[in-house]
From TrEMBL:
InterPro entries: Glyas_Bleomycin-R_OHBP_Dase (IPR029068), MeMalonyl-CoA_epimerase (IPR017515), MMCE/EMCE_epimerase (IPR051785), VOC_core (IPR037523)
Protein name in UniProt: Methylmalonyl-CoA epimerase
Statement: the UniProt record of this protein carries the keyword Transport: no
Pfam families (UniProt xref): Glyoxalase_4
GO terms under biological process: L-methylmalonyl-CoA metabolic process
CDD domains linked: MMCE
Family: Belongs to the methylmalonyl-CoA epimerase family.
Span of the signal peptide: none
Classification via Gene3D superfamilies: 2,3-Dihydroxybiphenyl 1,2-Dioxygenase, domain 1 (3.10.180.10)
All copies of domain VOC, residue ranges: 3-131
Any one GO molecular-function label of the UniProt entry: metal ion binding
EC number(s) on file: 5.1.99.1
Keywords: Isomerase, Metal-binding
Length: 137
């Protein structure tokens, strides 16, 4: 793993959260995008070399909607940048971590992603991400 790529924060209202984080961080979000497959709308802020991803549910059945219902607003996941997502998936499986999918999926901000089950990673939802243009399926 190279670095923490971003922190994902679940929010009830993306517009209000964008205003709050713009004031807090002193910068505007650089991107907003919808990930239909996951039922989420995201907004990204750049903070030094890291990013903050705000996540709003775009439908009531999405994982973010369920997270907000159970836990309320707050940190949803920590994403780590990796050089070779397939090799990292294998390494982590060999170490006993449980992946939530067998293959990386297209994610927001030009990444391919895979998540680790929180029960296998100390209660934290971990995302591995790699630039989509560097990924070979």
């Amino acid at each position: 793993m190279r670095k923490i790529e971003h922190l994902g924060i679940a929010v009830n209202n993306l517009e209000e959260a964008n205003e709050l984080y713009t004031k807090l961080l002193g910068v505007e979000p650089y991107k907003q995008e919808s990930v239909e497959r996951e039922g989420v709308t995201t907004s990204f802020f750049k903070v030094g070399e890291s990013k903050i991803e705000l996540l709003e549910a775009s439908n009531p059945e999405s994982p973010i909607a369920k997270f907000l219902e159970k836990r309320g607003q707050g940190i949803h996941h920590i994403a780590y940048a990796v050089d070779d997502i397939k090799a990292e998936m294998k390494r982590l499986q060999d170490e006993g971590f449980v992946l939530l999918s067998d293959e990386p999926k297209p994610g927001a901000d030009g990444k391919v992603v895979v998540f680790l089950h929180p029960k296998s990673s100390g209660g934290v939802l971990v995302e591995l991400c790699m630039d989509q243009d560097e990924y070979e399926a």
